[in-house]
Amino acid sequence: MKVGLFGGSFNPVHTGHIYLAEAVLEKTDIDEVWFIISPQNPFKMNHELVDENLRKDMVDLMIGHDHRMKACDIEFNLPRPSYTYTTIETLKEKYPSTEFEFIIGSDALNNIKSWRNYEDIIQMPIIGVIRDGEVIKKDIKDIIKNLNIIHSESDTSSTIIRNYIQSGRIDELENIQLLNKKTIEFIKDNKLYND
């Protein structure tokens, strides 16, 4: 089985993430996409992150019944902050018969040399996701042996979602198809992103 590893804070997950996973499944030979929820991103301040278990629950709600996607909490039990190379090593040990590919957006990919042990990460197949107007830098393309670049339409972000919630417009997120109804209700019930 081939699994695409899609890491992120998912704070919260939104349809843009789901569309990206669907694009990977449709445009590559990946069998499943695993959303690797990061409890602590070494590049981001943590004060805005809601509890990782709540973020995992929201990923489950957004995925719904699509068996090709799953929320993965592997990093919840790893040392913090979470480093991608450690996560990948742990997954390879736990699932030795699974082939893993790393899914990464263009911004992060263009800055991958700043990641800890990035040399190990770029040894594996990488799926680089670009949006309109974005490019992968030549020096990055040159150092990755197995790079598959795909295009994604979505340009939304978790920051946009949080801004809608904080301004009391959470119900609009279903109408503009950024969150599904179950996830909106979950956010309301748990009073997330209101402060």
Keywords:
alpha/beta, Rossmann fold, globular, 37% helix, 9 helices
Characterise the protein shown here.
The chain is of the alpha/beta class. The protein has one domain: HUPs (Rossmann fold), CATH 3.40.50. It contains nine helices and six strands. Strands 3-2-1-4-5-6 form a six-stranded parallel β-sheet, sandwiched between helices. Helix 6 (138-143) links the parallel strand 5 and strand 6. 29% of the residues are buried. The mean pLDDT is 94.
Output the number of helix runs. Answer: 9
Q: What is the domain total for the residues?
A: 1
CATH class wording: Alpha Beta
Task: Note the quaternary state here.
Answer: single chain
Order of helices and strands: EHEHEHEHHEHEHHH
Radius of gyration over all CA atoms, rounded: 16 Å
Low-confidence segments, given as residue ranges, are none
Structural class: alpha/beta
How far the N terminus sits from the C terminus, by CA atoms, comes to: 42 Å
CATH superfamily: HUPs
CATH architecture: 3-Layer(aba) Sandwich
Can you count the beta strands?
6
